[in-house]
Amino acid sequence: MKVASLASGSAGNAYCVESGGSVLLVDCGVSCRELVRRCRAVCIDPRRIVAAVFTHNHVDHVKGLATFHSHFPGAELFANMMTADAIASVTGVGESEFSVFENGQEFEVGPFAVKAFSVPHDVPDPVGYLVRAEGLTYFHATDVGAPLDSVGVNLSEADIATLESNHDPEMLAASARPESLKRRIFGDRGHLANDDAAALVRRFASPRLRALSLAHLSRECNAPHLAERAMRAALAEAGLGDVVLRVLGQDEPVVAS
């Protein structure tokens, strides 16, 4: 199983999981042209995308969908009912274009077995994903407002994981952002702070975890070294010091596993 981040951050999010010559796209928050360019930069053939799954309807996760769908009509689109409806209103891609699943219900597409789980965020029915292929499990959770045990239970199944580590609370509090936005980000349906992400890993990551990527870092209210420092300490405390840790960025695609 190969996992790659094409873009990670508030300006756009897109990730790929590759197995057996097929590719699963998680979110489509970059233009189709950028998606193709970035796929090729990490040696993924975008023509092999068999499906795209969506976490929620915010623009930074779906803004490239309409063009992607017109250029790659063979790629099946998956979302739960409320997310499909919300994405349709944002992108113009009709709800009928989606294969709709229920959270917790595993479905298969290509070589992938996929299961969505609920996460707290300020949109209709947001989810994270477990993706299984080749005997491995990939965990994906960005835009998570609180380090809930229910999220951690899914993390415990992961061999490879992508987890939000959005902000440093002191930097966010000191930023020039409007107080309403700060309250949203700090809230239980906002975004995970570095220490929250670290706490989830400390409590729930299992010895099978071998690679962890930190996602959706704020450019204004975080710094890669702060997110990495908090997570490395958590991994050490959990006896997982050998886990390969990466901090994902907005502009450069990277192979994460």
Mind explaining what this structure looks like?
The chain has 257 residues and is an alpha/beta fold. It has a single domain, classed as 4-Layer Sandwich (Metallo-beta-lactamase, Chain A). Helix content is 30%, strand content 27%. Helix 5 packs across helix 8 (194-204). It is globular, with a radius of gyration of 17 Å. The model has no long low-confidence stretch (mean pLDDT 97).
Would you kindly provide a brief summary of this structure?
This protein has 257 residues and is α/β, with parallel strands linked by helices. The protein contains nine helices and 14 strands. Strand 2 and strand 3 form a beta hairpin.
Architecture blueprint of SSEs:
Blueprint: E1 2-7, E2 14-19, E3 22-26, H1 32-41, E4 49-53, H2 59-62, H3 65-71, E5 76-80, H4 81-91, E6 98-101, E7 107-109, E8 112-118, E9 127-133, E10 136-141, H5 149-155, E11 160-164, H6 169-174, H7 179-186, H8 194-204, E12 211-215, H9 224-237, E13 244-247, E14 254-255
Parallel strand pairs: 3-4, 4-5, 5-6, 10-11, 11-12, 12-13
Antiparallel strand pairs: 1-2, 1-14, 2-3, 7-8, 8-9, 9-10
